[in-house]
User: Fold this.
Amino acid sequence: MEGEGGRFRRTHLVPMPQVDSLAELNVLLAGYDERDDARRIADRTHSVGHDFAREATALTPLPADAFETGVTLSPRVDRYARVTVRQCRYSVPAKLIGRRVRVLLRATEVLVFDGARTVAAHPRATVRGAEVLVLDHYLEVLARKPGARPGATALAQARATGAFTATQEAFWAAARTAAGSDAAGTRVLIEVLLLHRRLPASAVIAGMTAALALGVTNPELVTVEARRAATLATPAPGQQPASGHPAGTGGQSGRVLTLPERPLAPGTALPADERPLPTVTPYDQLLRRRDPASGPDSRPDTPGEAVS
Assistant:
């Protein structure tokens, strides 16, 4: 086994491969391993992969229970909503500041638990002193201090990774213009970003796109459009997805037109509602008994008594 490990390293890892993440390295190593299945040792007739497939049937089956290889730690959340794990810092929801949490440190990921609930999941940092921050963990803080958002480290990382999309940038700019100030526009954006916690990210992006198309940055409108997008993306059992076009629709299935909110012009008002008030009088005929004072249509008090 040691000799095979050395051969694999000398063959495939010299010179050292240049990758951007451990995940990319694992994919690269899996490809090398698959290529080695076709290798023949010395003058043997069969390949390594062929011999292993024949011997695999004689191996003892793997245990049914998974073996956890991670290390459990219990750091305390600092005032910046971060936990320090092996000299690297990872963000957690701001509501956990000052509390101890349980951290499961694995080879490629870091999981943070509050009780039995997973509150954060990060790729493991490989550089000492690195910070891995998620913008969603700081939304409540930024809602109280919107002026800190443009220079926030979490925002810079979200932009670098693509988590903060061009649609969100455009919506933020439109919200600041409509609100008349950076702080008010930032609060509108944060209210919309909080929708990610209960709706799929793609649905929220669709809601923001629809709002931008209408020239509106109202969070309520974005919520309605996001819920509609989520519903169309997950149709009920037996229904055709929104991407299909049932017969007779002319390919317009799922098309929704939303009217923007427009204030009334000065000096104008809605027309008066001249419809009559609702009444239940027609339903009186359904009553089995009527008050004798109501007229000749009253029914007898004794069951079975004939009516003349």
In short: Residues 241-254, 302-308 have pLDDT under 50 and may be disordered. Residues 39 and 131 are 43 Å apart (CA to CA). The longest helix spans residues 22-36.
